[in-house]
Amino acid sequence: MIVSALAFYVFAAVAVASGVMVISSRNPVHSVLFLILAFFNAAGLFVLLGAEFLAMILVIVYVGAVAVLFLFVVMMLDINFVALREGFMKYLPVGAAIGLVLLAELLLVVGAWSFAPRAKTVLDAPVPAFDQLSNAQALGRILYTDNLYLFQAAGLVLLVAMIGAIVLTLREREGVRRQNAGAQIARRREDVIEIRKLPAGGGGQ
């Protein structure tokens, strides 16, 4: 019991610290690396809760795909941070106004928070034993029955994000040499190799 409580506090503290570093780090590559660390600690919290399936999905999908994609996109975009910092004060009033609107919305949500009418019946419903219903089976019932349309909408959002990342990476930029795989495959040996017969003692001149 003490070991699990200690592991919970360690995972939670590192996850919160990683989240703070994601938004406070000046280097975007470091931010993505801290994001990966936060995902790993969140997976550890899922394991402590007994939801090992969610932990594996979090590591495989978010760490193995989404976070790595973010990292490569950030490294390939070649963002001019000097130009971004120059326009900070110009957009500060707009950003502050948007922040105030979001804060007001959060306060309204917290102020109007209440229990759902069906919450009491859900809490009183019998929970099946762990040997009768696995985490994957329970999650599948929720995703593909009650929340099927929301699940499909989330898939479309991820598809749009993937297409956007590809478009940003493949945009035309001056001074960037791109690989032409077709030209490399179609080249002949005579075009790239020249055989010369050097006289004895002539060296490589």
Plain-language structure description:
73% of the residues lie in helices and 0% in strands. With 205 residues, the protein is mostly helical. Among the domains are: 1-79, Four Helix Bundle (Hemerythrin (Met), subunit A), CATH 1.20.120.1200; 133-171. The protein is extended, with a radius of gyration of 27 Å. It starts with a helix and ends in a 13-residue tail after the last helix.
Q: Name the CATH homologous superfamily of the domain at 1-79.
A: NADH-ubiquinone/plastoquinone oxidoreductase chain 6, subunit NuoJ
| Secondary-structure element order, N to C | HHHHHHHHHH
**Which regions are unreliable across 5 or more consecutive residues at pLDDT < 50?**
none
Cα distance spanning the termini: 77 Å
- Biggest pleated sheet: none
Q: Which whole number gives the mean pLDDT?
A: 79
CATH hierarchy class name of the domain at 1-79: Mainly Alpha
CATH topology of the domain at 1-79: Four Helix Bundle (Hemerythrin (Met), subunit A)
- The tally of beta strands, per DSSP, is 0
Cα-based radius of gyration, to the nearest Å: 27 Å
Gross CATH architecture of the domain at 1-79:
Up-down Bundle
The percentage helix is over 70%
Q: Into which percentage range does the β-strand content fall? A: under 5%
Structural class: mainly alpha
SSE diagram, text form:
Elements: H1 2-24, H2 28-48, H3 52-77, H4 81-86, H5 88-111, H6 119-124, H7 135-146, H8 148-169, H9 181-186, H10 189-192
Brief account:
The chain is about 75% helix and about 0% strand. The protein is built from 10 helices and no strands.
